[in-house]
Amino acid sequence: MDILQFEKQSLRLPSAIDEIHDELFEQKHVRVYVKRDDLIHPIISGNKWRKLREYIQIAQFNGHKHVISFGGAYSNHLYALAYAGKELGISTTGIIRGDELTAESNIYLTQMKNWGMELIFINRADYQQKRIPEGFKTSDSLIIAEGGFGNAAITGIKEIVHELCDVAFDHIICTVGTGTTYLGLCDSTSKTIVHGILTLNNLTEIESNATLLNIPIQQLYSSYIFGKYANQPEELIQFCEVFSHKHQLKIEPIYTGKMFYGLYDLIQKDTFKPGSRLLALHTGGVKP
């Protein structure tokens, strides 16, 4: 299937923008909106499709029959790639961190395999170097970096700002994993301040990626990581539950929960001037 046809038939684009209300927002005289990229598609939602789109188009235009990428055992990126490959007729391979794993280690790996993705499990030392196993044929393959990082993904992320049209926001807030979404937003607008909420201790990596892509960093916060990646303390879990119930907006504690937790804290600390219009980007991450 052609990528434009797939977007038209299967995706909800541009994604909606919804305002959410809270006593804190009224007290601080700010308005908060959510860019609902989580509603683009039940599986390839959020920034996953944004980052993959240009790569898939490159693969189709250049005759690549195969796409290879990297990720962990619960990678949203690989999950989305596996599904997109199935729908668009592109074979895929996922290089998975952890040679102790199998396709039966969790339901997401199993589903990726069922969608036709070849899963290759490598040890952590090789994964850190992003080594593709010897003998694996890559000549006709498009290789995508972990999380989709790269200029093609930056181009896809810029569509988020293009979809805002004439709606003016003073600040955009997003979660930061590999930093691709954050850097794409930073590169898309000079009028709106972009605030990134780090979800793991990789500030040095983000700074290095920004230098590599020649994109100036705007605002980054490392106060809402809650320890190691994927750590889920009770305080954060409770926040996600209360927020989801109050706003009828599902979030999870690994990515979007940390972002909204940080946003509330920044508002409480008067980071934003009264009268500010804030746009929080919901990047999905909640698997079905």
Automatic annotation (TrEMBL):
Its cofactor is pyridoxal 5'-phosphate. InterPro entries: ACCD_DCysDesulf, TrpB-like_PALP, TrpB-like_PALP_sf. Residues 24-284 form the Tryptophan synthase beta chain-like PALP domain. The keyword tRNA processing does not apply. Pfam families: PALP. The keyword Phosphoprotein does not apply. It comes from the Bacteria. Keywords: Pyridoxal phosphate. Belongs to the ACC deaminase/D-cysteine desulfhydrase family. This is Pyridoxal-phosphate dependent enzyme. It comes from Aquirufa regiilacus.
